[in-house]
Design a protein that fits this description.
Helices cover 28% and strands 22% of the residues. It has 498 residues and is of the alpha/beta class. The chain binds flavin-adenine dinucleotide (FAD).
Length: 498
């Protein structure tokens, strides 16, 4: 079995993995690294999802990297443009050569006596490949790439039409003139309905319960105007700062005045739809931001609803029939195609198993330190973005923090850093305090957050920035050690020299 060494091993070549590699080039240019990517392409989410209308649901000034301006006039961008941005960034920082495609990371073993990780990946050619490294940065996203969540609907086998999950959209699917039902009310459903509405005979969004849906401008007129006079970087920074502030404000207002925000969000939707849509379809059972808020650019969903071609049903599925779906209310929806926009299957660490000094390491029994590392597990960083703001806002500062830790270890001659909880009063809390189905389903498979700092997850960019960029590294919780007693020397067969 071949064995390759690098200082840093990044799992995943999506938005976060490519960003991490570029940060490493910028912040610790002497470190060697490799990216192991299970697929044959970069981009992760933005390459995998191919359903009609695939787009961001947060603005690109905050979903873009902090070091690479987003210069496309569209602030809420389509999937292919985001993929192009990731590819362009990878090329600009010359990181593509370090990606090993078709390498699915399966296991990682930490050996304290050597202070080194040994990582096993299944290569597409059937080979088991071993990599060793000093630090793992896991950028494997948060869901299982093998398939999305598909509930067991009664009678589904009797349905004569097509059933499609957005995670596996068939390239050749022709939906012109067809009757389509989209099951779900999340970001994917609200994207699909307006994107397909033009071609179909009818399209119904079938939701068990409604979601908060807010219309935002697709283009940022102010930035597009400023771009005529000001340098790109400055426009990006201004828009980014403003949008960070606005999204924090929206979140805080939603938490402080849930009823007022709920009314505001519902009213703006009903106003744009313009005809008598029953407001029950837009009245969620929960407060704004108990689950992720859905964004629709320029109210495209509301426009599709206003034409009458698209509709919403709020009901439960009784069973599938040969020709469609029977609802608990007794109503039947005819369908040629049913799209199950029923969500993702959360999968931490890209499904990789971890071992600490020969023993399996159970992440579900551990706290997450600063939302970045796992209690008692040395030299592994997790890049996990926000659920209430753009993912990359956090991915950027997590990555910068990890590289600051690496630089500090070099300076101090340390080889191992391990978060240790010495505080008995820290209580275990769910990692994410949202009630979304996919998060509830994931309970018991993910680590916990703690009841107090530094184990508490802030979900707040300003607080995270203070903690991760400016906070003390040697805080008495992150234990720095050198169990080998040796300074680190890069083994001769480095990946960088592959
Ligand atoms: C349809 C959709 C729309 C979204 N829209 C937004 C949005 O508008 N704003 C927002 O903030 N967030 C959004 N998200 C969340 C989104 O996932 C993040 O924005 C971002 O793309 C995450 O990037 P990532 O690189 O961390 O993860 P991913 O994009 O999931 O990439 C992970 C990479 O790791 C690879 N990988 C996984 N496991 C392994 C393994 N074991 N071995 C090797 N490689 C592995 C995968 O193949 C993939 O390439 C969206 C998610 C989805 C599904």
């Amino acid at each position: 079995m071949a064995n390759h060494y690098s200082d840093v091993l990044i799992i995943g070549a999506g938005l976060s993995g490519i960003g991490a590699a570029c940060h490493l080039r910028r912040e610790l240019p002497n470190k060697s690294f490799v990216i192991l990517e299970r697929r044959q392409a970069i981009g992760g989410t933005w390459d995998l999802f191919r359903y009609p209308g695939i787009r961001s649901d947060s603005d690109m000034y905050t979903l873009g990297y902090n070091f690479k301006p987003w210069s496309n006039p569209l602030a809420i961008a389509d999937g292919p443009s985001i993929l192009e941005y990731i590819r362009e960034t990878a090329a600009e920082y010359n990181v593509e050569d370090q990606i090993r495609f078709g390498h699915h990371v399966k296991r990682a073993y930490w050996d304290s006596s050597q202070a080194i990780w040994s990582v096993e990946a299944n290569a597409d050619n059937g080979e088991l490949v071993r990599y060793t490294c000093r630090f793992i940065l896991c950028c494997a996203g948060y869901y299982n790439y093998d398939g999305g969540y598909q509930p067991d609907f009664p009678g589904v086998d009797s349905f004569k039409g097509k059933i499609i999950h957005p995670q596996k959209w068939p390239e050749d699917l022709d939906y012109s003139g067809k009757k389509v039902v989209v099951i779900g009310s999340g970001a994917t459903a609200v994207t699909l309905v307006p994107a397909m509405a033009d071609k179909v005979e009818s399209i119904t969004m079938l939701q068990r319960s409604p979601t908060y849906i807010l219309s935002l401008p697709r283009e940022d007129a102010v930035s597009n105007f400023l771009r005529r006079f000001l340098p790109e970087k400055l426009v990006y920074r201004l828009a980014r700062t403003r949008n960070i502030f606005l999204s924090l404000l929206l979140y805080k207002m939603s938490r402080a005045f849930p009823q007022a925000m709920a009314n505001f969000i519902r009213k703006q939707a009903l106003k744009q739809i313009g005809h008598g849509l029953d407001s029950k379809h837009l009245t969620p059972r929960y407060a704004p931001w108990d689950e992720r808020l859905c964004i629709v650019p320029d109210g495209d969903l509301f426009q599709a609803l206003s034409t009458g071609k698209a509709s919403i049903e709020t009901d439960q599925i009784d069973s599938f029939t040969e020709t469609g779906i029977k609802l608990k209310s007794g109503k039947e929806l005819e369908a040629d195609i049913v799209v199950t926009a029923t969500g993702l299957v959360i999968q931490p660490l890209g499904g990789a198993e971890l071992f600490l000094d020969g023993k399996p390491f159970d992440i579900t029994q551990k706290l997450c330190y600063k939302g970045v590392m796992l209690q008692d597990l040395p030299n592994l960083g997790l890049v996990f973005g926000y659920t209430n703001a753009s993912w990359t806002l956090k991915a950027d500062i997590v990555t910068e923090y990890i590289f600051r830790v690496l630089g500090h270890m070099d300076q101090k001659g340390m080889r191992q850093c391990t978060p240790r909880n010495q505080d008995d009063i820290v209580q275990f809390r769910p990692f994410l305090d949202m009630t979304s189905g996919y998060i509830k389903r994931a309970e018991g498979t993910i680590p916990h957050q703690g009841s107090k700092a530094p184990w508490r997850l802030h979900q707040n960019y300003a607080l995270d920035l203070m903690m991760l960029r400016y906070g003390k590294l040697d805080d008495g919780v992150l234990e720095f050690s050198n169990p080998t007693g040796q300074q680190f020397a890069t083994p001769a067969s480095s990946v960088a020299a592959d």
